[in-house]
């Protein structure tokens, strides 16, 4: 460029030289322009190509995760179903009821399908009217303090936020609850109300089952009125066909690789041999029992403290959370069922769903042996429900026994009364029924198909993760009682835990477990006072709470008043954690320790009596100290009596009427200042 510039500025250049220079100049300019155009074209070409590819990305994603897989509408159309029964289930009962209703449908020329709301897109409810004679039924259990079950949480969230038009949807709801709880059937009531608000048409009234009474009878009573309402709405009639149809077919494996056989795992095959986090209901962690000691010094009962080692599991927990354990049935009960039915329990088999479109391929992990199924997967200790009796009746060779079973499974008043007295109140489990009906000998595979799944048992954690990050503590009482038939019935989980003796490496001390989060939490500010009420094993979460408050104090934090109201039968027999509580009180962490010994004197004294005795101090802590109240234990009597006592205290010292006092306590609950962790 310098040469060129110099030449152009030289006035003495001759004409030919000037022309040659211009030719050279143009050729260089041409090269530059051509290069520029080529570059621009190349850039445009690639840029345009990228822009064209962008819209393809969502398409590729939609292929990877097709909406159709989560569409129950498409599934119903494909399989010719017109009734879908969704279930919100924590312990399996709502799922069982949903299966029964979906099975009922064929009696009326309809086809039903039970569905887990967690597996489908519930916004498709607005499209259900595309299917002729379509109906959505919801069997919704209420969990905890009016909460949805884990598998219905997404559905609940959607209902709260949805502004969908469900005007073409026909629905019915059956709720499963327990009257001893504050928010009886809250989930069933909410779903029923919200669907109507979104324009859906209710074709039958809300059913409300009460597990504190007779849930099975509540369901049967609702069901026997529900189906005639469905018939009337759709103009159909019962076909007369009964619903004794097998859902699964038996496949016996004579030559099977035992590495492919389930031996008690809840989800992934060999998950107990090759443990991988995260650990949850479908993938429990095998925790070693490092301590198992008896807490009580006397009496007939066995109260125990267990410690589970969760080192290297990455499991995290907070004080107030629950630990779920998967128990095993008593081997003697399992063996007796095998003997009564004349079965080789070590036969390896699979039960395969006859409905190939079903998401549920097996009733429990398969292939497995009958022994494993009856030990780890099936509930053999609770009284069977009426549908099980109905299905089993066909296998009774004695006409009188067959008639008795059918009567108990019927909706007639006499049949309901017989079922209540002979099965429920007598606490007859499946083995007792087989023993007391000698002609009833069903095939073991059909029995395994009918029995409900053995459920995890939940315990309030009795430790703080701040003090015990690698250990979870359980406080429990073994359940054992004599039935009206003279049999000794034992609680599955507590008796199984009782026998978990700490060993160095023994499998007999391993417990499959996971942690379930809770809303039962200490106040955010350590300086906030707490009033804890927990008689019996209800003390469990408060041991964790007090441990945590002691730890906070050691960290130099200002810790508010920590008040405990505890109760037991006799001071010298079942005063749980006596030494620990005395130590916490001596250290000044536990500022008040109030203990009611109910049977150490002529008149029974309970925790609510001690609350009344200290009512002035209780009111001061609530009103001036903004204390948080925690109640743990029996829901049927204790929790209700304690709540009534708080109504009285608030009414007296807050100068309020009874309705105002009730409203005041309810507001404490809403604000998270009155928390319950109760069971019935």
From TrEMBL:
Annotated Gene3D superfamilies: 3.40.50.360, NADPH-cytochrome p450 Reductase, Chain A, domain 3 (1.20.990.10), Nucleotide-binding domain of ferredoxin-NADP reductase (FNR) module (3.40.50.80), Translation factors (2.40.30.10)
Domain Flavodoxin-like: from-to ranges: 83-227
Keywords assigned: Endoplasmic reticulum, FAD, Flavoprotein, FMN, Membrane, NADP, Oxidoreductase, Transmembrane, Transmembrane helix
Keyword Oxidoreductase: yes
Biological process, per Gene Ontology: response to hormone
Gene Ontology MF: a single term: flavin adenine dinucleotide binding
Names of the cofactor(s): FAD; FMN
Entry's transmembrane regions: 25-46
Cellular component annotations (GO), alphabetically ordered: cytosol
Major enzyme class: oxidoreductase
Boundaries of every FAD-binding FR-type domain copy: 282-523
EC number: 1.6.2.4
Signal sequence, renumbered to the chain: none
HAMAP family: NCPR
Protein known as: NADPH--hemoprotein reductase
UniProt organism field: Orthonyx spaldingii (Chowchilla)
Lineage of source species: Eukaryota, Metazoa, Chordata, Craniata, Vertebrata
Encoding gene per record: Por
